């Protein structure tokens, strides 16, 4: 079917739901480790507590991709039913996670939250390929990245902002501050409303032959299609998978370990361990409260600093939006350069001060903007369009497997080869991202490279 070219605002509307999705991811990535530490988790246990996220993605994403490929609702269409279900579940989980009274409940909510976000997110990737002609796909994924950057910056600054507006950042031992609870509630509202905006403003193309589609749907079998898709996986997808492995190992390391690493190394405000204080003694109780407030304030500043990578990725995407609207680009070269700069940003954290930490996140944002657009643009030019949802879901195996490897010990084992200091986890992330950048030269498919 000949697809018409869409205007900027049509692409913007169909991608706007990513604002809410990124609110969910940014709040999760910036503040879940803070919640875990507040509820008593030790630093080395944090990556394993995060394992719910990649495990959920490994299971959910191919299933949702397959189901959305084989769905057609006369009112909602193909992808939008999954946007809606995921948005409702994600909003509920976002609201309740900071109210978790104990650690295992917070871990459970992370599991629910990540599964729900994945239900919404994966069909959004497929929607770009569904709606846009080949010549506009780079532009479509870049506009998604622009919206993701806006969401990352705003959501990362929410706890700091609501604290500045008068909401308390103090809390009793083992309790999450009210500033974080209010921020997550705002995130829940934005998630649902932004998804609804896309649902109401975007129409999907129906199958070219509805009767044939219904027949194929009846004959479809998930495991049969899964194994067939794995067998048909193009070489370009496998090569992109290697790049994704090292890229997402780096970012999972940041999301899980940046708060303990940077509060300790840059802000000199580590999370106090309650059992090291005699809470029956008034002096020690007061010392714990002061140390905890210092940690909570430093965590807000880490979150705000992380928000800079959202601004940087937004600027990167804005520049590419204007350029790709008129000209083709070398996707491989852009991705290579962006990942190398992000790796340098991670390594610079070792030398950063509170006033210069933003430099790291500016560079990391360039790599993040590229990670969210260039691999998907390259992939969409290399796979069967009828299986776009399934292939996008399978592609995310290369996102979740490195996170699982990182969570079950990869981070702790590798960063401790450089020393016990938690900041070494950020150096590890930098090395991983530089390796990812160099792996771009494995890509040789001209259709994938140019777009």
UniProtKB/TrEMBL annotation:
It is a multi-pass membrane protein. It is found in: Membrane. Residues 236-451 form the Major facilitator superfamily (MFS) profile domain. The chain crosses the membrane at residues 12-36, 48-68, 80-97, 103-121, 141-162, 182-200, 237-258, 301-321, 333-351, 357-379, 391-415, 421-443. Pfam families: MFS_1 (PF07690). Gene3D superfamilies: MFS general substrate transporter like domains (1.20.1250.20). It comes from Flavobacterium lacisediminis. The keyword Transmembrane helix applies. InterPro entries: MFS, MFS_dom, MFS_trans_sf. This is MFS transporter. It comes from the Bacteria. The keyword Iron-sulfur does not apply. Keywords: Membrane, Transmembrane, Transmembrane helix, Transport.
């Amino acid at each position: 079917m000949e697809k018409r070219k869409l205007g900027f605002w049509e692409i913007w509307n169909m991608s706007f739901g990513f604002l809410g999705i990124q609110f969910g991811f940014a709040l999760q990535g910036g503040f879940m480790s803070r919640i875990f530490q507040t509820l008593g988790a030790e630093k080395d246990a944090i990556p394993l507590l995060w394992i719910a996220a990649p495990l959920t993605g490994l299971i959910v994403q191919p299933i949702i991709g397959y189901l959305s490929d084989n769905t057609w609702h006369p009112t909602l269409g193909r992808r939008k039913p999954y946007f809606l279900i995921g948005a409702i579940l994600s909003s509920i989980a976002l609201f309740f996670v900071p109210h978790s009274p104990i650690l295992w409940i917070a871990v459970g909510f992370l599991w629910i939250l990540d599964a729900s976000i994945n239900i919404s997110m994966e069909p959004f990737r497929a929607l770009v390929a569904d709606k846009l002609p080949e010549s506009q796909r780079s532009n479509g994924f870049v506009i998604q990245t622009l919206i993701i950057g806006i969401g990352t910056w705003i959501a990362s600054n929410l706890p700091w902002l609501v604290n500045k507006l008068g909401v308390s950042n103090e809390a009793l031992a083992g309790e999450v501050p009210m500033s974080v609870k209010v921020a997550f509630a705002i995130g829940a509202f934005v998630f649902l409303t932004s998804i609804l905006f896309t649902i109401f403003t975007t129409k999907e193309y129906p199958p070219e032959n509805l009767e044939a589609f219904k027949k194929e749907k009846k004959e479809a079998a998930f495991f049969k299609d899964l194994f067939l898709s794995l067998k048909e996986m193009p070489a370009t997808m496998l090569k992109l998978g290697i790049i994704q492995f090292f890229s997402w190992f780096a970012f999972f390391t940041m999301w899980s370990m940046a708060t303990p690493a940077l509060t300790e190394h840059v802000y000199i405000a580590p999370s106090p361990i309650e059992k090291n204080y005699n809470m029956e003694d008034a002096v020690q109780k007061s010392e714990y409260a002061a140390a905890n407030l210092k940690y909570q304030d430093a965590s807000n500043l880490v979150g705000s600093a992380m928000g800079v990578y959202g601004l940087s990725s937004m600027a990167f995407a804005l520049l590419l939006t204007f350029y790709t609207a008129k000209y083709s680009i070398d996707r491989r070269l852009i991705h290579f350069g962006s990942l190398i700069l992000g790796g340098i940003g991670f390594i610079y954290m070792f030398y950063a001060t509170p006033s210069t930490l933003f430099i790291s996140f500016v560079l990391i944002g360039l790599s993040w903007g590229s990670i969210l657009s260039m691999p998907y643009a390259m992939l969409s030019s290399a796979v069967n369009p009828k299986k776009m949802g399934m292939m996008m879901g399978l592609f995310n195996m290369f996102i979740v497997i490195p996170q699982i490897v990182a969570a079950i010990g990869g981070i702790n084992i590798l960063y401790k080869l450089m020393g016990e200091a938690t900041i070494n986890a950020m150096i590890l992330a930098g090395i991983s991202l530089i390796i990812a950048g160099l792996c771009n030269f494995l890509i040789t498919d001209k259709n994938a490279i140019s777009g």
